Amino acid sequence: MSGNHQAGNEAWHRQLHHTGHDELSEDTAQTPGMRRFEAISGKRNGSRKIWMGKAIVAPGMVSGDHHHGEAETGIYVVSGHPVFVFLEDDAERRVQTGPGDYIYVPPYVPHREENPSPDEETVVVLARSTQEGIVVNLPSLRAEVPELDELIAQLVAEE
């Protein structure tokens, strides 16, 4: 078998990586008011274009305002009724969710998670389009995010 053919064949036979529910790591970017746990990333599994994990917001807690840089984020609500807060036309918009719901967070969009329940934690599964979990903590939802302005200008120019 030639070297090129063997190398190509090996690329299609790489191993799968399993992370058990009890093997998640808190060694990932964090935001006050919530805990993130990393399952799949470049440093843990060698992923190149995806980061996955879960986040927990304790009863009555509110996370700090933050964004996830260039990453697109998909969120699946496992349990609880988290509220996702962001700005729309300079006013806070609140998206109330429950188990089975999905949320899409575009790149650079400031937001926060809230758990209005006095006795039930919220658990969500996170998927990001970057190799590592990017978290940029902000002083408020109204903080300047120049990258978001640039992205919006680019999208408008493409229309």
What does this entry show, briefly?
This protein is of the alpha+beta class and 159 residues long. The protein has three helices and ten strands.
Topology, please?
Elements: H1 3-11, E1 35-40, H2 42-45, E2 51-57, E3 66-67, E4 73-79, E5 83-88, E6 91-96, E7 102-105, E8 111-114, E9 122-128, E10 136-137, H3 146-158
Antiparallel strand pairs: 1-2, 2-9, 3-10, 4-7, 4-9, 5-6, 5-8
CATH architecture classification name = Sandwich
Helix content: 10-25%
Order of strands in the sheet with the most strands?
1-2-9-4-7
**Terminal Cα span:** 50 Å
Mean pLDDT across the residues is: 93
Structural class by SSE content: alpha+beta
Our count of domains comes out at 1
- Rg for CA atoms: 18 Å
Q: List unreliable stretches of 5+ residues.
A: none
Number of strands: 10
Task: Describe the protein.
- Helices cover 16% and strands 32% of the residues.
- The protein is of the alpha+beta class.
- It has one domain: Jelly Rolls, CATH 2.60.120.10.
- The strands form three sheets. A five-stranded antiparallel beta sheet has the order 1-2-9-4-7. A three-stranded antiparallel beta sheet has the order 6-5-8, with no helix packed on it. A two-stranded antiparallel sheet has the order 3-10.
- A hairpin with a 2-residue loop joins strand 5 and strand 6 (91-96).
- It is globular.
- The N and C termini lie far apart (50 Å).
- The model has no long low-confidence stretch (mean pLDDT 93).
